[in-house]
Amino acid sequence: MANVSVYNIEGKEVGSIELNDAVFGVEVNEHLVHMAVVQQLANKRQGTQKAKTRAEVRGGGRKPWKQKGTGHARQGSTRSPQWTGGGVVFAPTPRSYSFKMNRQEKALAILSALSSRVEEKKIIVLDELNLTEIKTKKMVSVLENLKVSKALVVLGEKNENVTLSARNISSVRTALTNTINVYDILKYDTLVLTKDAVAKIEEVYA
């Protein structure tokens, strides 16, 4: 099992914790990690792009000139794709880009992302993260104490003071253990977990 130091919000080491290898020590499956990221980005797409085909463009009902004898190439409509103002050949239409992943694949992708953070030593465990008031400056000082700039902060339970204090920091995102996803884990440089968040993640995925 990986042994990781535990820090307080002052940035001082106050102990250590053993991470469960079934969650934080699995073999990284890059294919599933990639698939999970692509799925999340695809599910975000609006899919509202639209262009008109030759059947939908207004006009072009009359044959522009007779079939033979003009010296021109034969044409049946001024709304054919080769004409200015004509339709688009394979015009995009509104559609959903989303696709599904199996539950087991999703779980393994998250475990792979968590394990990769442990391998790269980009994980910090806090004994607790409690702020007495909603203050962005206090959250910034906590991150500075931990020598962290771009971080995903995962909490074990809802904490409005922490969530609202971090909301205005563009390089920081807060999440609960049941809302973590592969894209966010990989997007941010450091994964900051509270001890109770580690326990909850291990309880769900171990």
TrEMBL record:
Matches recorded under SUPFAM superfamilies: Ribosomal protein L4
Keywords: Ribonucleoprotein, Ribosomal protein, RNA-binding, rRNA-binding
Signal sequence extent: none
One Gene Ontology molecular-function label: structural constituent of ribosome
Ranges for region Disordered: 44-86
Annotated TM spans: none
Keyword Transferase attributed: no
GO process annotations (BP): translation
GO cellular component, one term: ribosome
Family from the record: Belongs to the universal ribosomal protein uL4 family.
Role this protein plays: One of the primary rRNA binding proteins, this protein initially binds near the 5'-end of the 23S rRNA. It is important during the early stages of 50S assembly. It makes multiple contacts with different domains of the 23S rRNA in the assembled 50S subunit and ribosome. Forms part of the polypeptide exit tunnel.
NCBIfam families documented for this protein: rplD_bact
Subunit (UniProt): Part of the 50S ribosomal subunit.
Name of the protein this chain belongs to: Large ribosomal subunit protein uL4
